[in-house]
Design goal:
The chain is an all-alpha fold and 192 residues long. It has six helices and no strands. Helix 3 packs antiparallel against helix 4, helix 4 runs antiparallel to helix 5 and helix 5 crosses helix 6. The mean pLDDT is 91.
Length: 192
Amino acid sequence: MLYQILCIILLIMFYGIYIGKMLVQKKQGIQTDQIAKGNKKKSLLAIEIIMKIATYSVLVVEIISIVMDTAIKNNIVRAIGIGVGTAGVIFFGLAVYTMKDSWRAGIPEKDKTKMITKGIYSISRNPAFVGFDLVYIGLLLVFFNWALLVLSLFAIVMLHLQILQEEVFLPTAFGNEYISYQREVCRYIGRK
């Protein structure tokens, strides 16, 4: 029961940050959710639609796994999972906070945003995605089952494909500033 409560708290915190930021930005007239919206290339649109389906699907299976408490009862692995999931919430929270009003979900076609390279972005070009991945991995460790494994891996792959699409877009939005940043900071974590 303890692990169920802790994971519910992690999910509430994680998605609370996501939804809370969207609501704050909406009050400012900013459309945060740009996933699969607008006149995007078919390949980008397909990736964003599949990514959205994958991330919603994994959330549903996470909730079912928590309610059914599907895990093999290994408290060491489960405790590690809580730690990994907590790190994911922290990474995601810092990413959203650091981006301020430049944060978007999906590739914005028309919004002008600032390029952020400070804070958590000085050690990761994609800390929000790292946060998602860590939450998925953490909950998988706590409530391992095959459906959750497959959907978590699928969501992680789709997020990676989204990152690759963003890496095509960002040099056109920020030019040499982004290219220099890309040379200095790793895609997921670390400096070059």
